[in-house]
Amino acid sequence: MNFEQTVHYIENSMRFGCRPGLERTAKLLELLGNPHKKINFVHIAGTNGKGSTTAIVSNILKHAGYKVGTYTSPHLYRITERIVINGVHITEDSFVKYANKVIEKMKYMEANNMEVPTQFEMLTAMAFLYFEETKVDVAVIEVGLGGMYDATNVIDAVLSVITSISYDHTDILGNTIELIAAEKAGIIKDKATVILYPQLYQEAENTVEEVSKKKSAKLVKVSAEQSTLIKFDIMGQSFDYTYEDVKLSNLNVPLLGDHQIKNATVAVTAAIELSKLGYDIKQDHIRIGLETVQWPCRLSVVNKEPLIIIDGAHNEDGVNSLKEAFKKYLSDKNIILVIGMLGDKNYSYALQELAPLVKHLVATEPISPRALKAEQMAEMAKKYNDNVEAETDIIKAIEKAKKLADENSVIVVGGSLYLAGSAYEYLTK
Q1: Sheet of 227-233: strands edge to edge?
Q2: Domains of the chain
């Protein structure tokens, strides 16, 4: 199979979704020679912010001179984005090579009446095999969903990070913050080091603390007081940082939002703890790792005339962060919101919080069978805003927003990572 055929096979012939249990992934990796047992890992879980944190930690390690594998999900518009070494996506040829190796073992499992892994489990095994055979020094792994039963949790990480914990995927992870936090804390390993983001819910912090004690793990609780915002504009933020005897002044990060300062603080703390574990990470590596990090579609400026920002806010925490960004960065702008969401997300909350703050709203749809119809989104949005239009096609929706824009307008595209990915591809290619 060539690259297109391989991707088509993965996207159309393999089982989606999350199924509890690590047995399938562990068996698949065993058939592949247990590549994950030969790699040093940093493991990152959380409801929001784990992708940004993964990107920052990876970039700091890269600038410290390490060969760094990074595994994230979902991808925005190209599946090769998920598997990266030192910022470079896996090539199409390598993707096909490692996919075929893994698919061969999956077919063996099927032929021998073993439970066949899901698509995500297959891609996880691919990433581990690729990282092992290309001899990365360390791999930074983002959890797909939850933590305890996520396919990535077969690894034994040298350091674990847990970012913001809030309500999401409650049908799978549980309908209380304690149950969700317990799933996230499932990545904590015996006698490991754990970095914890400053939590909104005390119950989440308590749960992580309890699991850490049971595992005899070192828990480092990051506080908001460790960072002080100095200045900000639409292109980035600067802050001072302290942790124990480390003081770093005027750190710059090109990611927007108060939550990104906290994510950066967590990532820097993780880097300092990694240095205690023997990694040669200097302050300059931290500084340049922050300054040069890229994490698209999270309050990303992709165009200046007209000003266009893309954000993949898709749950309540993400919506709240976007709302705060409206007030902090765009209070003097006429905001034109292009929004589309999946039908199983809390779109009513998103519209309630965001629609009253914008001058125009263009309802559209992500490319997904789970998408909420644009007309349905528009009808609900009219409760909160009089200037609402519907346009099913995301590209046409963006062009419609451009026609509505004047010299004081900003177009914000968001509501779903699927939508954000399509918009990003269109606006940057």
Answers
A1: 227-233, 236-243, 246-253
A2: 3-291 (3.40.1190.10), 300-428 (3.90.190.20)
